[in-house]
Amino acid sequence: MQPGTGLLPLPVELESRSGPGAPASYPADVAIDPALGPEAYQLTTDADRPRIVAGDAAGAFSARLTLSQLPVGPDGRLPALRVADRPRFGWRGVLLDVARHFLGVDDVLAFLDDLADLKLNRLHLHLTDDQGWRLQIDSWPRLAEVGGRSGSQGSAGGWYSKDDFRRIVAHAADRHIVVVPEVDLPGHTNAALVAYPELACPGVVPEPYEGDEVGFSTLDTANELVYRFTAEVLREVAELSPGPWLHLGGDECLSTPDEGYAEYVRRAARLVTGLGRIPVGWHEIGQAGGLPDGVVGQYWNYTIPEDGHAARVRSLVAQGGKVILSPSDVAYFDMKYTADDLLGQDWAEGPTSLREAYGWEPTTVIDGLAETDLLGVEAAVFTEYLCGLDAVRSLAFPRLAAFAELAWSPAPAPGQQRDFAGFTRRLAGYARRWDARGVSYRRVPEVDWEA
């Protein structure tokens, strides 16, 4: 039991493994039944030893998490219960921006532990932007060595070696989290252009950038060297990332000519599929046309979308794609909680309260999209103004707990809303886990934290 919490400790080593990630054996009280489906599980605690039946190893992991979060009675016994559980969405992700303010490996590993405890299963690492390039690329070494020196607000920068990145991927995999690396192209590329000015448009002389403006940088999409650069970078990123997805970025390319943008996106997406991976991009890539079947678009506009943004999402689906929803007004947790906050931004339709983070319904965001068109949902924490893990956590939590429940739980019945009062009661108890681990979080007034 964790001292002072009344909760069982979070298990880390849940099963022995044989080969690359393959479960070899389970404790006697755990059984696998694939008929339950991915990540599903049944948990029974009405005997001396809890019993788990799971659809797969990820389901067993989630069952153990549920077990670890049950209150323990004064006699040291668990309450008698039976749980049958499965997630609504297969993609329950969080974007962590390490390009603006760099976070070291240990901080990323700690954040992965935070995500695992909420049954979130994707870490989208935003590795490159105008302010910094954060991953070693052997074929283009100055990307990290030069482009990695800078950061937002004059921060010192930094970058991950390939061994660093492998350590992150392995830590995530042990917690059934897939790392989705993003190399943001062809815009948001100023740091890359500082390292390799020959990739810039003629006459452009890039300088290191520490601000928060977007849309001013672009690769020269008419230059064949840019496509060699793209192919070699994507190949090395794919070699480090065993998961099926590679994120190409593609947002806010305001300085890229429309025809050049469309051609670049099509060619880059084909390069990803040629590596045996599924291309993911921000929803603007839907304007390109001719995209590979199965491409994934990530929507970042508002829950009441502007027409052009919604049209690009529909175009992606019409091309055989799937959609990840990240509406910035409810799922960007670098936004302020209230207008008076000093930390955070407010461009996404103003501050985002805990109630707003909990209360939105994914199927109502884009007219004409069915739930089958959705791969899942993803929250985001961008770091233009967030320096260090404590700052990231203090804005992410508790809103990320609200997002995690929305991502896992069934949709409310027609005409009904999610039970916010019930959620806040559960959240007050869950927060003891954050307290025990020293995790920063905002004690918002909607929650009776002493309950």
Structure description:
The structure is a single chain. The chain has 451 residues and is of the alpha/beta class. The protein has 13 helices and 14 strands. The chain has helices at residues 57-68, 105-117, 142-145, 162-174, 190-195, 224-240, 258-274, 307-318, 328-331, 354-359, 389-396, 399-408, 420-437; strands spanning 16-17, 23-25, 30-32, 41-44, 51-54, 82-85, 91-97, 122-126, 178-182, 245-247, 278-282, 296-299, 322-325, 374-381. The strands form three sheets. It has an eight-stranded parallel β-sheet with strand order 9-8-7-14-13-12-11-10. A four-stranded mixed β-sheet has the order 3-5-4-6, covered by helices on one side. Strand 4 (41-44) and strand 5 (51-54) form a beta hairpin. Helix 2 runs parallel beside helix 4. The protein is globular. Mean pLDDT is 93; it is low at 1-28.
Task: Summarize this structure as a short list of keywords or feature phrases.
14 strands; 451 residues; disordered N terminus; single chain; four-stranded mixed beta sheet; eight-stranded parallel beta sheet; alpha/beta; 31% helix
How are the secondary structure elements laid out?
Layout: E1 16-17, E2 23-25, E3 30-32, E4 41-44, E5 51-54, H1 57-68, E6 82-85, E7 91-97, H2 105-117, E8 122-126, H3 142-145, H4 162-174, E9 178-182, H5 190-195, H6 224-240, E10 245-247, H7 258-274, E11 278-282, E12 296-299, H8 307-318, E13 322-325, H9 328-331, H10 354-359, E14 374-381, H11 389-396, H12 399-408, H13 420-437
Parallel strand pairs: 3-5, 7-8, 7-14, 8-9, 10-11, 11-12, 12-13, 13-14
Antiparallel strand pairs: 1-2, 4-5, 4-6
Helix pairs in contact: 2-4, 6-7
